[in-house]
Amino acid sequence: xxxxxxxxxxxxxxxxxxxxxxxxxxxxxxxxxxxxxxxxxxxxxxxxxxxxxxxxxxxxxxxxxxxxxxxxxxxxxxxxxxxxxxxxxxxxxxxxxxxxxxxxxxxxxxxxxxxxxxxxxxxxxxxxxxxxxxxxxxxxxxxxxxxxxxxxxxxxxxxxxxxxxxxxxxxxxxxxxxxxxxxxxxxxxxxxxxxxxx
Amino acid sequence: xxxxxxxxxxxxxxxxxxxxxxxxxxxxxxxxxxxxxxxxxxxxxxxxxxxxxxxxxxxxxxxxxxxxxxxxxxxxxxxxxxxxxxxxxxxxxxxxxxxxxxxxxxxxxxxxxxxxxxxxxxxxxxxxxxxxxxxxxxxxxxxxxxxxxxxxxxxxxxxxxxxxxxxxxxxxxxxxxxxxxxxxxxxxxxxxxxxxxxxxxxxxxxxxxxxxxxxxxxxxxxxxxxxxxxxxxxxxxxxxxxxxxxxxxxxxxxxxxxxxxxxxxxxxxxxxxxxxxxxxxxxxxxxxxxxxxxxxxxxxxxxxxxxxxxxxxxxxxxxxxxxxxxxxxxxxxxxxxxxxxxxxxxxxxxxxxxxxxxxxxxxxxxxxxxxxxxxxxxxxxxxxxxxxxxxxxxxxxxxxxxxxxxxxxxxxxxxxxxxxxxxxxxxxxxxxxxxxxxxxxxxxxxxxxxxxxxxxxxxxxxxxxxxxx
Lengths: 198, 469
Ligand code: SF4
Description:
The structure holds two protein chains of two kinds. By secondary structure, chain A is of the alpha/beta class. Chain A contains eight helices and seven strands. Chain A has helices at 23-26, 46-49, 86-94, 106-115, 124-136, 166-174, 178-183, 186-195; strands spanning 8-16, 71-74, 98-101, 118-121, 141-145, 150-153, 159-161. Chain A has a seven-stranded mixed beta sheet with strand order 4-3-2-1-5-6-7. Chain A is globular and about 60 Å long. Chain B is an alpha/beta fold. Helices cover 33% and strands 16% of the residues of chain B. Chain B is built from 17 helices and 18 strands. Chain B is globular and about 55 Å long. Chain A binds chain B through residues 1-2, 32-37, 83-86, 106-107, 110-111, 114-115, 165-168, 177-179, 181-183, 185-186, 188-189, 192-193, 196-198, and chain B through 13, 15-16, 18-22, 24, 26, 28, 35, 38-39, 42-43, 46-47, 49, 52-53, 55-56, 64, 78-79, 81-82, 85, 129, 143, 145-148, 150-151, 154-157, 159, 197, 250, 254, 257-258, 411. The structure holds iron/sulfur cluster. The site of iron/sulfur cluster has 14 residues of chain B, from helix 4 and helix 12. Iron/sulfur cluster is lined by residues 62-63, 107-109, 128, 130, 344-345, 405, 408-409, 426-427 of chain B.
């Protein structure tokens, strides 16, 4: 699935200071019966966000108009649980392009990179500073600079750098996914295929 | 340079190595089912590209299917919609599709080997983590996400960094009533569910050499539950005998050529592994799990460990026992159970039904137990009838269902009710896996059979001894 290029993102952020947010909370299992990648954003954090009668739960952060933006800031060990890519789809489709946490579950991190969401891992102290800054002022902006691999709290200038593998970085900068890369190798692949019997 | 079995298969499939990035790996065979494929096919449509090699792709319906009345329209509209989508996608792209009722239909990891699709030295992927099953034939096989399903459909390749290698050797003789499932649950209990994260495992030694192909599949299937990407076993005469004559297996001159290659598929004598582990086969007992991950297992005569004796967080451990409503130090034997599930890609093959029948023969199902016996495929179902196993099961008060994943992930109607205990031959005992609030005890078909006739956790050796006496 193609996605938009990522370069420098400056945005307000939505705080979710909860640890061990698992993929069942991000997108409950019953939504795995879909046949299209549509509407996953509507079901992001479905059971935290809505009552069983579909009325919004006022106290949940996504239902609070004070907060918004393209960056989701979550507590430690974000995205643990099953390998369902639907969790990363839900994050992207809702409108987030970046998730910040002090630790990510492996598969969720990979799935994010595959669908165009940048996972940014920061130190626990910096994560705390971000939460505090947003609490003090919900209009606080973060700057995520992919070419430089830095994240900055705009108000204070406080900055950290983050890790990303060179290949994945190129993909995000260009809006490519692995399939684009592989499609460009088509001739090489077809030649290879003639060598491997069925 | 000397190589491991894994190196030989992996290296021969690398189309390109990307600096600072993953390898581009060619995939020989791609198995597809209804749940993780629809969005991948949509992706192809949006890019207006076809499936590159339909003849390397095989589709079946299994995850979301009912295990009763498969000849009638599927009741759940969402499930029916996924099944329709797969059928339409398969037709549009010229992929063989074995839908409900088709003689080749069944659980994706059961029908691959049955039809000769699974071959030594092949790379095999599927959008299901238990794809590791196919490693039993000396293939590299692992589960993938939906973006990767799209990638393989479009380009027959996947991008992955090469994992590290681990060899698990088990020598010695297994005790009576100790099955391949027990061997696997034992390894996971020793390694924990993350003990092999980042590794691809090779199983070696006497125990695996003596194991049937069905048994090897059970062990490789559970590799993922110790965190490994997959597991594999070097092919031998047993492997070749199993494959020979199956529909999609090579024939004639192709067979001879394939054999020449397959016979080179073993780790060289001086090959180096990143990690080596050894266990003694004689110290393994029939196993059962007591908690909410597959690593929380013990020999069936043992009691539930104290929180202080286990690695990791005591509070997580206690939370898990609270979910199960079990206490530290309690004996597993004698615990009352409500459901028995025989099936899944872990233990839904003919050998598993033979084992189950060997215990229930001449006995009666306990009245309070609900038993779901679900063959892994139509071929397994036919063998159950032909071998006279169905009669034994029916005389003991059991009924046979139609093939599918069923209560393994409970996406269909086969859900264990909240708070009930199920002895299951499947692979995951996570909270809610078999239905919201369900409590799962993973075990072998022999332990499941013993529970089904006594209504409680029972050592199958007691019943088997009675029978031979
Ligand atoms: S039986 Fe269970 S583990 Fe096996 S393919 Fe089906 S859902 Fe996956």
